[in-house]
Specification:
Elements lengths: L4 H8 L7 E4 L5 H9 L5 E5 L2 H13 L6 E5 L14 E7 L1 H10 L9 E6 L3 H10 L2 E11 L2 E10 L9 H4 L1 H6 L4 H20 L6 H23 L3
Parallel strand pairs: 1-2, 1-4, 2-3, 4-5
Antiparallel strand pairs: 5-7, 6-7
Amino acid sequence: MKLKPRLAAVAEMVPRGDIAADIGTDHGHLPVYLALQRNCPRVVAVEKSTLNMRTAQETVARYCLEDRIEIRLGDGLHGLAEADLVQTVVLAGLGGKTICQLLAAAKDLLSAYRRLVLQPMGDSGMLRRWLVETGFCLVQERLAREKGRYYEIMAAEPGEQVVEDPFLLELGPVLIRDGDPLLIPWLEKQLQACEKIAQRLRQSNFPRSSMRLKHIEKRCWKLRGVLQRVGQRP
């Protein structure tokens, strides 16, 4: 099975040979890939939708992997059991706020997992802050581009992380540190979007626009600084 760039990047962050869980598996493509290409001996896929669960089961049956992949109806991480011995948990394709809520709802269970692989569809800064404040360390981050859209993928493990500049949690401190191949075009796209918002606010007559404009201009300034820094690397 060949995955699209977003899910392929997610799969690459799952350690080879780990027992994995895919929360919100949708069509079940990721569990099949993990079993076939990442040598995961067992994958538990949790799906809240009965329809999606059946679709995922059909995908697994098509590849004759019923002995290694279990598709389970459940709500978030509470769909997993201690006896599953899961090492890596994947939550991909959900909003960052939703991922935070799912992790917070199962906060007492998180210490049992070696790694969290997360791919938020938005609010990535909120998710990073939650992880760092909850006792997780960002160990790996990368970008994927699919149909002109950029996606942020991150792996977190239990541990302490000190981030000197809180703004880097908006962008991804590991992305900035390691210099992802897509980093510069991704930052440029963010800066362009930020500048467009600033331009609209300058033309606005709403009373609150001036306060928001200051915030947006500060973000633009910080983005330019990061772009300059990463662009000067050898």
